[in-house]
Amino acid sequence: MQGSILKAGARQLLFKNAPTLFIISLLYVILAAVISWLAVRLLGSFGILDTLTRFASGELLDPSTLFANIRPLGAILAVLLLLLHPILDVGFVSYCLKINRNREADYKDIFNGFTIFIKIISIFIISTIFIFLWSLLLFVPGIVASYSYRQAYYILLDDPEKSAIQCIAESKLIMHGHKVDLFVLDFSFLGWFFLDSAFVLLTPLPFVFSIISVWLSPYLGLTRAAFYENRIAGIAA
């Protein structure tokens, strides 16, 4: 499977579905940014630039300094708020999957995750625990494990009746022998990730989102959806 082919197909879909696709992507990016911003505010932690400055000066190397500004109740609320991230992400995955399949899709699709939020959170927690346990052995096994579970959300969207464990198990089956393929595909977006991160870091505002994400999110989402389609087609064959 050639990543360049998948990416070329994704770009065709991007332009074919413009400008609606980018408007919906903008909505998704803003919602994700708001969730992250609120979580940071609830934690009582520092802004990005302030954190980097304090870390560079050595101030945050002292754990007592690092955690002194964090409010316990705020931390609990922030964790609960951050659990909205995988739910929103799966909604955007649902939207990209529909676009990739040439099905009718609209902004409501990015909220599809809320209809199956318990299973989404279950997959998120279970896979995170597994990845953490594998990471205790070495860093690389943790990365390998994370790629094994990458198709679990797609499987859930195709069959919401399946349990979280079923989705994770089937993802491992789908990804067997193809984890490197997806890693290489992800790596090909590295330049975009750096550009996106640099935009956020260099913007001196209390609440920002990267306009680059409005392009990158659907580009990446459609490419990964195409990867999933190729894998399930390969299993069926």
Explain what this protein looks like in three dimensions.
This protein is an all-alpha fold and 237 residues long. It has one domain. 75% of the residues lie in helices and 0% in strands. The protein has 13 helices and no strands. Helix 6 packs across helix 13 (212-236), helix 7 runs antiparallel to helix 8 and helix 9 crosses helix 10. It is globular. The mean pLDDT is 86.
Describe the protein's topology.
Elements: H1 3-16, H2 20-43, H3 48-57, H4 63-68, H5 72-82, H6 84-100, H7 117-137, H8 139-148, H9 152-158, H10 164-175, H11 179-187, H12 190-201, H13 212-236
Helix pairs in contact: 1-13, 2-5, 2-6, 2-13, 6-13, 7-8, 7-10, 9-10
Short recap of the structure:
This protein has one domain (about 5-235). The chain is built from 13 helices and no strands.
Q: Per the principal axes of the C-alpha atoms, what is the gross shape?
A: globular
Low-confidence stretches: none
What does the radius of gyration come to? 19 Å
Q: Average pLDDT value?
A: 86
Q: Would you count the extended β strands for me? A: 0
Helix content: over 70%
The number of helical elements comes to: 13
Structural category: mainly alpha
What distance lies between the first and last C-alpha atoms, to the nearest angstrom? 15 Å
The tally of domains stands at 1
Specify the biggest β-sheet.
none
Order of helical and strand elements: HHHHHHHHHHHHH
Into which percentage range does the β-strand content fall? Answer: under 5%
